[in-house]
Amino acid sequence: MRDLTRARASLSQEVSRVVSRIHKVLEDADVKLASVATNTVGKSGQAMLDALVLGEDNAEKLADLALGHLRTKISRLHLALEGKVRDHHRFLLQRLLVQWRFLVAEIAQNSWRLLLAG
To answer: Which segments of the chain have a pLDDT < 70?
Structure first.
């Protein structure tokens, strides 16, 4: 069980590193999503990031992907999403999202295994 707990902690640290790299790519593209959304990789953030990866540049359309409480911040999102996302940003974001989703799935598997072992 100790090994599983250590593995989960290591995966969680890697998730934090990947999220930091996502923030860095967004900052380089002058997209300030993290200044408005408390969880950049939450449901709304993922929808916006996926749309950016697929080529959506319209800040209004991206902001309209907001869900729940984030919908109350639409006007701030419009401003935050007006960046200069280029092809290399899209590529990096796509690869980082793949890594993030893999790590999240690994943590879920690890947690499930910890429940079974406990």
So the answer is: 118
